[in-house]
Specification:
This protein has about 200 residues and is mainly β. It has one domain: Sulfite Oxidase, Chain A, domain 2 (Alpha-Beta Complex). It is built from three helices and eleven strands, in the order βββαββαββββββα. The strands form two sheets. Strands 1, 4, 5, 8, 9 and 10 form a six-stranded mixed β-sheet that branches. A five-stranded mixed β-sheet has the order 3-2-11-6-7. Strand 8 and strand 9 form a beta hairpin. The termini are far apart.
Length: about 200
């Protein structure tokens, strides 16, 4: 039988539901970006949804704000291993934006002001799983966290929730985005630890 020092309690365990493997809990909201933070005012912001046939659907900031709004509270998980619980957002569901869009696409590529892009299966943007979020914890989303609006896809690693989103292009083939081309996993499921290509 091993010897245990008095007072030894073992490793601390996160309170609440389990985190994805390899993640640690943080109360902060770390700022991680691949380049400089774009400055985009709501007056100049526009979101464009383009189908594989070239059809385009456009929303200005006032038009986005006039759509039905949702207030998801979700856990988020960064590929750099931090997780943050119960984050509160407000935005427009992708279900609302895709309603009535005629498409046979199976994939989507999100594009951002500043040139960033990321790819996702279209099914991951449907059924209440993704939003164009403009408010965080009751306040306008700060630029360093992707404001005025970012894609929010909380069930995937957070690099898939493209900051400063300006549009989504629907495609019939999978087209890797910025980090995926650089060696990150094509899908990015935190529960399967899909951090890098080959995971």
């Amino acid at each position: 039988m091993g010897i245990v020092s008095p007072g030894f309690q073992g490793r601390p365990r996160p309170a609440g539901p389990a985190l994805p493997p390899g993640q640690y809990l943080t109360e902060d909201f770390p700022v991680l970006s691949a380049g400089p933070t774009p400055t985009v005012s709501p007056q100049d912001w526009e979101f464009v949804l383009a189908t594989e046939t070239g059809a385009e659907y456009r929303w200005s900031w006032p038009e986005l704000m006039a759509l039905p709004q949702e207030t998801p509270t979700v856990d988020i998980h960064c590929v750099t291993r931090w997780s943050k619980r119960d984050t509160s957002w407000q935005g427009v569901s992708l279900d609302t934006l895709l309603d009535g869009v005629d498409t046979a696409a199976g994939y989507a590529v999100a594009h951002s002001y500043g040139g960033y892009s990321t790819n996702l299966p279209l099914t991951d943007l449907r059924d209440g799983r993704a939003w164009i979020a403009h408010t965080y914890e009751g306040r306008p989303l700060p630029a360093e966290h992707g404001g005025p609006a970012r894609l929010l896809v909380p069930h995937l690693y957070f690099w898939k929730s493209a900051k400063w989103v300006r549009g989504i292009r629907l495609t019939t083939t999978d087209e890797p985005g910025f980090w995926e081309t650089a060696g990150y996993h094509d899908y990015g499921d935190p529960w399967r630890e899909q951090r890098y290509a080959g995971d």
